[in-house]
Design brief:
The protein has about 120 residues and is an alpha+beta fold. It has two domains: about 50 residues, no CATH class; about 50 residues, Zinc/RING finger domain, C3HC4 (zinc finger) (Herpes Virus-1). Helix content is about 30%, strand content about 10%. It has a three-stranded antiparallel sheet. The two termini are about 50 Å apart. The N terminus is likely disordered. One of its GO terms (cellular component) is cytoplasm. It comes from Pundamilia nyererei. Pfam families: zf-C3HC4_3 (PF13920).
Length: about 120
């Protein structure tokens, strides 16, 4: 709901019309109706996406965290040994070393890992 300038007061009691930047808050003549509509659609989309992301983000248990950095969830599995870490740790490690962190087997590949759904 947009109020007229004489209906708005700032915390210090001054009228909004006395504030030099107030015209930018209420003067929308330079914005087309199409632009306003597109912004409203984008805000609605982002709000919905934010709600869905928050709902789908389950708290991560300690056992789901990378055993190397404890900062990111496990997201990579090493071949052939099947040990796991986050992609950030294995990518950094593979720059200088081709051996598994844990068993020292030569890593021949890294695959994406996602935790199996609980039954």
């Amino acid at each position: 709901m947009i109020l007229s300038r004489n209906e708005l007061r700032l915390d210090d009691g001054s009228a909004l019309s006395e504030c030099p930047r107030s015209r930018f808050l209420l003067d929308t003549d330079y914005i087309s109706e199409e632009e306003k509509h597109r912004v409203e659609l984008m805000l609605a989309f982002l709000t919905e996406e934010s709600k869905q992301a928050a709902a789908s983000t389950a708290p991560t248990s300690e056992e789901d965290l990378c055993p190397i950095c404890y900062a990111h969830p496990i997201s990579a599995i090493f071949k052939p040994c099947s040990h796991k870490s986050c992609k950030a740790c294995i990518n950094q490690h593979l720059m200088n070393n081709k051996d598994c962190f844990f068993c020292k087997a030569t890593i021949t590949g890294v695959e994406d890992y996602s935790k199996p759904a609980s039954s």
